[in-house]
Structure formats: structure tokens, C-alpha cells
């Protein structure tokens, strides 16, 4: 979890409560380095609405108004941005296959096809599996991706 600076002092339970009735927008790649920065290079794949309360007391994770939802475009999930009901950004979560916070029934999304979240967990800030040189990456045709020395 990468928390917006406004909420860094909040506990995990307080963050869960902030998401009641909010949204979770799933994006492809190029996650901003912080949740305070706008998403400018990633496509929206799907948008979920959190129920109220957004998290149940058991290990089931997040509760959504609808799950699955139809995909809005084609791509592979890379991260998801959670917002309060008023649209204030709360946090970014890793998403996709592998050791991620949000897992889906499928690896990729196709426009109009159902996107279903099957697992949602919190990983402490700084524990994301992405390589740091991929944060804010802006791949363009003809330019190589960042390389590890």
C-alpha cells in the first residue's frame, strides 16, 4: 500500500474505514511513485465501488457493491487507486498476478468482459514487489526500459 501523504498517520483500520462507499480504479502500468501524484500514463481497466462498510471483519477482504464489473478497456492490471466517497485519493495498491495486494480471477482485462477481484490484502508501505526504477516509468517506442546495473 502506498498511502497519500494526507493519510500517512492513519492506521490500517482507519484507512479501511476511509474507503467506505469509495472507489477502486484499476490501471494498467506506469504507477506514479506516490499516491499524491496524478495518474498520467496508465489506462483505466475497471472501476469498483466499495460497499459501506468497505471491509468485513473476516479474512474475505474488501466488499464491493458489484464484483465482477465490466472492463472499460484492454490491458493487464498493474496497480489500483483507492479513493474516498468524495474522490479524495487515499492509497495505491499493487494489482495483478504474483505477490500483489489485489488479485483478479483473470490475468488480463478485455473490454466489456467481467473483471473479478478474488483477493484483497494490505502490504506495508515499501513492501511492493515492483523495481524502483519502474516507478513513474514512461516507456515510449524506440526507447529502452530502465536497466538494473
Description:
The protein has 149 residues and is mainly beta. The chain has one domain (2-124). It has one helix and ten strands; from the N terminus they run βαβββββββββ. A six-stranded antiparallel sheet has the order 1-7-6-2-3-4. Strands 5-9 form a two-stranded antiparallel ribbon. A hairpin with a 5-residue loop joins strand 6 and strand 7 (89-94). The mean pLDDT is 85.
Record the SSE blueprint.
Blueprint: E1 2-3, H1 12-18, E2 23-27, E3 44-55, E4 62-64, E5 69-70, E6 79-83, E7 89-94, E8 102-104, E9 114-115, E10 117-120
Antiparallel strand pairs: 1-7, 2-3, 2-6, 3-4, 5-9, 6-7, 8-10
Low-pLDDT segments: none
Helix content bin: under 10%
What is the number of helical segments per DSSP (H or I, 4+ residues)? 1
Q: Compute the number of strand runs.
A: 10
Oligomeric category:
single chain
- Averaged pLDDT, please? 85
Order of helices and strands: EHEEEEEEEEE
Characterize the main sheet.
6 strands, antiparallel
* Beta-strand share of residues: 25-35%
Distance between the termini: 27 Å
Backbone shape: globular
Amino acid at each position: 500500500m502506498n498511502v497519500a501523504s494526507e493519510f500517512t498517520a492513519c492506521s490500517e483500520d482507519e484507512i479501511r474505514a476511509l474507503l467506505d462507499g469509495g472507489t477502486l480504479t484499476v490501471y494498467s502500468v506506469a504507477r506514479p511513485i506516490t499516491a499524491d501524484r496524478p495518474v498520467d500514463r496508465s489506462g483505466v481497466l475497471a472501476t469498483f465501488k466499495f460497499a459501506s462498510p468497505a471491509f468485513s471483519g473476516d479474512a474475505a477482504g474488501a466488499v464491493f457493491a458489484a464484483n465482477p464489473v465490466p472492463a472499460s478497456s484492454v490491458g493487464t492490471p498493474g496497480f489500483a487507486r483507492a479513493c474516498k466517497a468524495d474522490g479524495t485519493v487515499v492509497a495505491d495498491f499493487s494489482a495483478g498476478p504474483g505477490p500483489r495486494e489485489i488479485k483478479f480471477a483473470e490475468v488480463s482485462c478485455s473490454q466489456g468482459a467481467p473483471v473479478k477481484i478474488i483477493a484483497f490484502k494490505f502490504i506495508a508501505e515499501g513492501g511492493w514487489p515492483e523495481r524502483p526504477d519502474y516507478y513513474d516509468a514512461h516507456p515510449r517506442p524506440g526507447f529502452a526500459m530502465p536497466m538494473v546495473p
